[in-house]
Write a structure and sequence with these properties.
The strands form 25 sheets. Strands 1, 3, 4, 6, 9, 10, 11 and 13 form an eight-stranded antiparallel beta sheet that branches. The longest helix has 11 residues. The protein contains four helices and 78 strands. With about 1000 residues, it is mainly β. It has nine domains: about 250 residues, no CATH class; about 110 residues, Immunoglobulin-like (Sandwich); about 80 residues, Sandwich (Immunoglobulin-like), CATH 2.60.40.10; about 80 residues, Immunoglobulins (Immunoglobulin-like, Sandwich), CATH 2.60.40; about 70 residues, Immunoglobulin-like (Sandwich); about 80 residues, Sandwich (Immunoglobulin-like); about 70 residues, Immunoglobulin-like (Sandwich), CATH 2.60.40; about 70 residues, Immunoglobulin-like (Sandwich), CATH 2.60.40; and more. β73 and β74 form a beta hairpin. It is flat and about 155 Å long.
Length: about 1000
């Protein structure tokens, strides 16, 4: 992913492919030092890290760290901390896969992630290291760790915490987790950060390292604990069984711990002499360099020295739900252990607590037990005593007192505790409730109880196996099964528990015949279910229009959406057993509450016939009234020949349904007789009023039509005014709505009267212009409309319209005849220019003007930076922010003015985060720029710090080769320094992935 920022920010790309670190395993650390420094520099730009779930508090004192680690049975003194910078601290876990909740951290790098400094708490995709481009020198190593390294190796960045302590018991132990950025890529290699826990004191020769793989003498390290499936000699030479993958946690996708891997929670342990002084040193360091940091997390309060542990064990091994014993049966016991065998016996005292009474609920026990010399285990048996009546569960609890008081007086402190439950009987219970099933079906009988118990079910009829705890049951009839639970050799009474399996017969369901009904007429269903001696639950689907879906006789009430359709209902009867259903279906058809009479109210001429068109359900019966002229009154579509106007009704009926009635009116109309009068003569421009007669006159719905219809004021009215200019023959046709027709005509002679003229001809102007008009040929003038005229009665008016308009002048000659002249004036629209208020371009770029509107002629100002000033779309290339003004005209000369501001933007650069040599389009890694920039250098380094490419030509890129040799796929680091045309410096570095 590529992100590009302006020059006042920093553009960078981060590759989070943690697997890329595997390349290191085949090289030396010195060859990769430069690449690691670059990775650390990139990490400095990360400002949002996923470390909110692990909190680290650095810069602690030696005493604070030692006291945080110390728990019960240990006192400390003389704490000394030798660590560089902030390599140590306390930590607390909110949520993490580390396995610890809190404690202290010692690292050979940085403990706390803070801003751009990467510590132990962060996403595993980050890189924790203390050095950047060699500017921070290596911190000193640790001499104790140097002494355990192979010849020729030494440590850097050592961090150690050491102190004296007095144990109250004969063993000291603490919990820890070791993690490293060396994981996973450098397991089974020569690079192996070192750490150790060194104890010295009475009974210990020299310094003993407690950081060992459990059950071995092999030191915990990257080469001894990892997940390498094909280990080499670096791992196998650590000792038999190495590497120990069971103790490794792969953290490649972790979000709270920065290290790529770490161990499971391990325990350091050592035998000690109680109440004497020992010295403990906890140390970690880099080997050979200061990169790929490691750290060791030590659990808070885990440095303890308790002499013994106690564990309850159930009678005969009974452990469910908790360790327990049963009254009168095999005894339970408490198991006392010490970590290391000693040549002397150990007396362990305890306090007896709990709800059970010593000597009443169990046989009397003393207040102590002895672990024999050279032994590590002692037991105390608990024999539960019979109780009558049963008391329910009671608890025996032992509070263990420390065997070592180190010279103090008073009651010894409690160092451990355990409890054992005494039950009246064995703990076995059936969890399956009483159940009903269908004949031949199966139910899983399930019980809970200790796996040590023997189980037997009676009777065995229908059981898959009567001698297991959870058999399958399929009885032929209702059966009560009894579970018998026992513990062989324990003397315990057999426990009996029961469950009843009720058998149901699959029912036969009859929902009755299909039904027919109408809208508004409910229908009740009646279901018969056999056998009748069982109780059933009913379910109807769909539940549409039913008053209930759970009764055998619901009422169906039809709704409008169901009219004319069939609806099928599905009835399920269940006798009370899952899967034991009976089924049936019943359909109901809802007759439509309507039928369609297609023939509308109709008008006909006297003597004509109407053929009725309709559509209706054939289940209905039909009847027409009145019978006058009806061919058949009992069919839906008869023929009707009425003698006069009538309204006919047809009724559809069905038993138990409401009648449906529809009507049609047939209007019987007369055949008209027309007379328009004698022929006429008129002067041109005169009008003639005509008043024809039509019989019979009582009919009021005649339709009139004059032809030709030109020069007639109302060609569809009986009485008209004719204003034609030519000789014309007029014909009046009279019809009724039914098409009954009659007609007559008249000849009209028109004397000519075209004598007027005017100037100018039709013209066009811009808004706010005027037109001088001049008419001739008459003695009187009248102009309409008067809108926009200075004198509507003048032969020479002046027009100043604001929109397109047609003027008509009526010119009257000396004979009283009238003529008309016309002038159309088009008012062209104002000039319109629309363009952006402003645009931004980068140095070296241009912007082509693109004004929108109706103008065709343009003039731009200022001319600076323009390719032309008299075209619509010149190209602007200003060197500074410039406001351009344009004056434009339409093709009709209507003018307008507008402006646009061109702003110069700051130059930006960017670079892809991956490329693939030889595969277009991203086969060359090049810098993407916007603006004018001068490249000082563009450098690319491989993971080991070797420069594989450099150029000062910004148009040049890297083809993925070094000296003609293709470089391997992986992550590379780039650095860029450039300057804009304004002299501003641009610096950028980051990662890019080469893909092949």
């Amino acid at each position: 992913m590529e992100q590009t920022f302006p020059f006042y920010q920093l553009s960078f790309t981060i590759n989070t492919d943690h697997s890329g670190m595997n390349y290191r395993s085949s090289q030396t650390k010195s060859m990769r030092q430069s690449a690691k420094l670059i990775f650390s520099a990139v990490a400095l730009f990360i400002t949002s890290l996923a470390h909110g779930q692990v909190n680290v508090y650095p810069s602690q004192t030696a005493l604070n760290l030692a006291q945080t680690l110390t728990g019960q049975g240990v006192t400390i003194s003389n704490a000394v901390l030798t660590c560089p910078l902030t390599a140590e601290g306390r930590f607390g876990i909110v949520s993490s896969n580390l396995g610890l909740d809190s404690g202290i951290i010692l690292t050979n790098g940085t403990a706390q992630t803070n801003g751009t400094v990467i510590g132990v708490n962060g996403a595993s995709t980050l890189f924790a290291s203390t050095s950047f481009s060699g500017t921070i020198p290596y911190a000193p190593g640790d001499a104790t760790l140097d002494s355990i390294l192979p010849s020729g190796q030494s440590t850097n960045d050592g961090c150690s915490l050491e102190f004296d302590f007095n144990p109250a018991g004969d063993t000291v132990k603490f919990d820890y987790v070791f993690g490293s950025d060396e994981y996973p890529g450098f397991a089974c290699s020569s690079f192996n950060d070192v750490f150790g826990f060194f104890i010295s004191g009475p009974g210990i020769v020299g310094r003993k390292n407690l950081a060992l793989v459990p059950g071995t003498t092999i030191p915990v390290s990257i080469n001894s604990i990892n997940n390498v499936t094909n280990p080499n000699s670096y791992c196998t030479s650590m000792g038999a069984g190495s590497p120990f993958t069971q103790y490794y946690v792969n953290n490649a996708a972790g979000t709270t711990i920065t290290y790529g891997g770490f161990t499971t929670v391990l325990q350091a342990i050592s035998a000690v002499t109680p109440c004497t002084t020992y010295h403990l040193k906890l140390a970690i360091a880099d080997v050979g360099d200061a990169f790929y940091d490691s750290g060791v997390f030590l659990k808070a309060g885990s440095l303890t020295s308790n002499a013994v542990n106690v564990k309850p064990i159930g009678g005969g091994g009974l452990a469910a739900p908790t360790p327990y014993c049963v009254r009168g049966c095999s005894p339970g016991q408490f198991l006392f252990t010490r970590p290391v065998a000693k040549p002397t016996p150990l007396v362990i005292h305890y306090q007896i607590a709990g709800s059970a009474v010593n000597g009443v609920d169990y046989t009397t026990i003393p207040d102590s037990v002895v672990i024999p010399a050279n032994g590590t285990v002692a037991t105390r048996q608990i024999f539960g005593l019979p109780a009558n009546p049963p008391t329910g569960p009671v608890i025996v609890k032992l509070l263990i007192l420390s065997p070592y008081t180190c010279g103090t007086t008073g009651t010894a402190p409690i160092i451990d505790s355990a409890y054992l439950t005494i039950y009246d009987s064995l703990q076995a219970h059936i969890v399956t409730p009483d159940t009903a099933i269908c004949l031949y079906d199966t139910v899983h009988l399930q019980a809970i109880g200790d796996t040590l118990l023997s189980y037997n079910w009676t009777p065995s009829t229908g059981l898959s196996d009567p001698n297991i705890r959870n058999p399958l049951a399929s009885p032929p009839s209702t059966t009560t099964y009894t579970l018998n639970a026992s513990l062989a050799g324990s003397g315990c009474a057999v426990v009996h528990r029961s469950v009843t399996v009720t058998i149901k017969q699959p029912p036969i369901v009859d929902a009755g015949p299909d039904r027919v009904t109408c809208l508004g007429t409910p229908v009740q269903f009646n279901v018969t279910t056999t056998p009748a001696n069982q109780t059933y639950t009913y379910s109807w689907t769909p539940g549409t229009s039913l008053n209930s879906t759970s009764v055998p006789d619901p009422v169906f009430t039809p709704v409008a959406s169901q009219v004319g359709t069939g609806l099928t209902y599905y009835i399920v009867a269940n006798p009370g057993a899952a899967g034991c259903n009976g089924y049936d279906t019943v359909s109901v058809r809802v007759l439509p509450n309507d039928f369609t009479l297609y023939t509308p109210d109709t008008a006909i001429c006297q003597g004509m016939t109407v053929n009725i068109q309709a559509d209706g359900d054939p289940a209905f019966s039909y009847l027409w009234t009145p019978a006058n002229g009806v061919s058949d009154t009992t069919v839906l579509m008869p023929s009707i020949t009425p003698d006069s106007t009538h309204t006919y009704s047809v009724t559809a009926s069905y038993p138990s349904c409401p009648n449906i009635t529809k009507s049609i009116t047939i209007d019987v109309q007369p055949n008209p007789i027309v007379y328009v009068g004698p022929d006429r003569t008129i002067c041109q421009w005169d009008t003639l009023q005509l008043n024809p007669s039509v019989t019979p006159g009582w009919y009021t719905h005649y339709i009139y039509n004059w032809t030709p219809g030109t020069h007639i004021d109302e060609p569809t009215q009986k009485d008209i005014i004719f204003s034609g200019e030519q000789d014309t023959t007029l014909t009046l046709t009279v019809t009724t709505p039914a098409g009954c027709k009659g007609s007559d005509d008249m000849n009209i002679v028109v004397h000519p009267g075209n004598f007027a003229a005017m100037t100018p001809a039709d013209t066009a102007i811009c808004p706010r212009d005027t037109v001088a008009m001049h008419a001739t040929g008459g003695v009187a003038y009248s102009w309409t409309p008067a809108l926009g005229l200075n004198d509507a009665a003048s032969a020479d008016p002046v027009a100043y319209p604001t929109a397109d308009i047609d003027y008509t002048g009526i010119v009257t000659d000396q004979y009283g005849c009238k003529d008309t002249v016309n002038l159309n004036i088009v008012v062209h629209p104002n000039g319109v220019v629309e363009m952006e208020d402003s645009v931004a371009i980068y140095p070296g770029e241009s912007y082509q003007m693109n004004p929108r509107g109706n103008c065709t002629y343009f003039e731009w100002f200022p001319p600076l930076g323009l390719t032309a000033t008299n075209i619509s779309n010149p190209i602007a290339m200003p060197s500074v922010n410039t406001k351009y003004i344009v004056k434009a005209k339409t093709e009709f000369g209507c003018a307008v003015t507008d402006s646009i501001s061109v702003y110069m933007a700051e130059t930006v650069l960017g670079i892809p985060n991956a490329f693939s040599p030889g595969s277009a389009p991203n086969d060359i890694l090049k810098i993407n720029k916007r603006g004018i920039v001068s490249l000082k250098y563009f450098r690319i380094f491989n993971r080991w710090g070797t420069k594989v490419f450099e150029t000062s030509d910004i148009e040049q890129g890297w083809d993925g080769a070094l000296n003609g040799t293709p470089q391997p796929m992986g992550v590379y680091v780039y650095m860029i320094e450039a300057y804009t045309d304004s002299g501003r410096r641009f610096y950028k570095q980051g990662n890019v992935t080469l893909i092949r």
